[in-house]
Amino acid sequence: MAALGNPTNTIAILKKYNFNLQKKFGQNFLIDANILQNIILAADVNKDDCVLEIGPGIGAMTQYLCENAREVVAVEIDKKLIPILRDDTLSAYKNVTIINEDILKTDIGAIVQKKNGGNPIKVVANLPYYITTPIIMGLFESNVPLESITIMVQKEVAQRMQVGPGTKDYGALSLAVQYYAKPELRMTVPATCFIPRPNVDSAVIKLTRHKTPPVRVKDEKLMFGLIRAAFNQRRKTLVNSLGNAVDINAADKEKVLAALDAMGLPATIRGEALTLEQFAGLADFICAQAETAHNSLT
Ligand code: SAM
Fold this sequence. Notes:
Blueprint: H1 7-16, E1 29-30, H2 33-43, E2 50-54, H3 60-68, E3 71-76, H4 82-89, E4 96-100, H5 108-116, E5 121-126, H6 132-141, E6 146-154, H7 155-162, H8 172-180, E7 181-189, E8 194-195, E9 202-209, H9 220-232, H10 238-244, H11 253-262, H12 276-297
Parallel strand pairs: 2-3, 2-5, 3-4, 5-6
Antiparallel strand pairs: 1-8, 6-9, 7-9
The protein binds S-adenosylmethionine (SAM).
């Protein structure tokens, strides 16, 4: 079993198995041992942990995870990588389970139950960039027991996750991530650390799940509907972007205006200026108005 995390052994494995890298699966394999070690440190992986790795590739990060964690579950979509992992790069480890599945269709709750008795796991991954957002939102929204997610993503996406109002990168992803977790940018990673080199810079971000969300909101779905609609037309005022949105019929222009007035915000404000707390307040106000209207009809 060759130790990965360097160009020589990575190229040797790719040649040995005549493996063709698949762009459609976002395959950019890590070849830098320092970065791999630092990801393990950032994720704070130790021998008590059960770790889910999304997309092990040829197993570079998986080797580090197996050395440091109690139990590792690695979910890989590309079936051509499975024999490389099973028969070669991970064959020496008894604490790893390799699953050949699409992570977006995997029952992660069942894995957590089986491998960690339903206790919170850590997710560690060099993500396939084409599905970064669905993977993160899927993990949060499905409510699987989760302590943290430490992931390599496109640098620009990492920035979007951690900024607040008043910056150009602030958007629906920032608010969604910050509702569920505390984001911390841990390191930036140059393209030279991968085979093949991606066209973008990368960064490792750690998302530590909140035990309870930082804001209270009556109707989470309505709040995220408002957030999505506000940023779908981010150059418009909130009144116009929400008033035009077809999928949130609870929020017509008058209701949004009344809510802004009650919250002491100007009628001309744009969604990009609102904090998470203010979006929650807006959702609660609209929700209360809808309830009053409903009660007066019955
Ligand atoms: N962890 C490896 C490393 O760091 O060298 C590989 C990372 S590579 C950026 C992303 C990996 O995710 C690839 O192995 C790819 O085949 C896999 N992948 C892509 N889409 C996936 C999906 N929907 N479910 C599971 N794995 C996926």
